[in-house]
Structure formats: C-alpha cells, structure tokens
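--- STAGE predict ---
source: upstream dedup step, 1 unique chain passed
mode: sequence only
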Amino acid sequence: AAVETVRKIAKIGKDQFHLFVKERLVDRSKPLNDVIKHNKLPSFSAIRTKTALKSKQQLAYAKSDSELFSRLYIACQTRDGNLEEFFKHENRAYPPALSHDGRLRFGTKADLLESLEQLVGSQANAPQVTCVILDGAAIVQMLKPGHSKTSAEYATEIFIPYILSQLQHR
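--- STAGE serialize ---
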C-alpha cells in the first residue's frame, strides 16, 4: 500500500490541484476558504507488524521451552551428567524471573533495597578511618550552584565550605 502511494502521489496531487482550481476559481461552486479534504494515504511509518495473539505466543514459547528442555535432558542423560545438577539451573532461553515473553522486566532499585538491607544488616557505629577520599567531580555535580554567578563565587560560597564540613566530621 505504501509503495502504491509513492507511485501515485504525484498524480493524486495534480488531480486535487485541478479540482481545487475548477471548484473554487473557475466554477465558483465552493468558497475559496472551504476546507480541503485530507488524504489518508498509507505511508511507510504506518506499516505495523502484526502481533500474534497472546495465547498463541504463550503456546509457541511453551513448545519452544519444551523442545529445549527435552534436548538438554537427553544430552544430560547420554553424557552421564548429574541430573540433580541439571535441574538446579535455569533451562530456558529467557529466564522467567528476568523476562516476560523474551522481553526484559524492568524494576526499581528501591524494590531491591529491602532485600539487600536484610542480607547486610545495619551497622550502629561507623568504622574508624584514617583517611577520607572525596571525589571532586561528583561533589560539583551534587552541589547546587545557588546564587553564585562565577566559578570563584561557587568555590568560596558552596564547594570549599562543603569540603571543610566533610573533613571536620571525620
């Protein structure tokens, strides 16, 4: 359809131009400011790939997983592999914990925070340190410039006081 549009677009435009001139200037059957009909011609950007029904996709994935599982299982048996070790690992092309139908699941870092805190535990006291390392570029990105207009103002009003405060608390 889009190819036909490209082939016929010049003719369609000329025909519409001649119709416009005839109706509005020659015959005066329509007012000059009357709306011109919009062309709804298919373009390449309008071409969409057909997505299969969800149930068909799930069936296809199940068949694919079944075939993969059976091949791996047979290979494990013929090579005298350990079946307990075989079943310990994920045997799918796309692990369901990380993806849905082959598309990666997105999560938030905040969801991981609770699990990680339980693994690590909390520390009541900070450890004794003998040195402090400050990343100047990260600090510049972190601190807002406020009302400072020059680099010198930023350094004297914001950056240096922050550095001094970090060194005093250690």
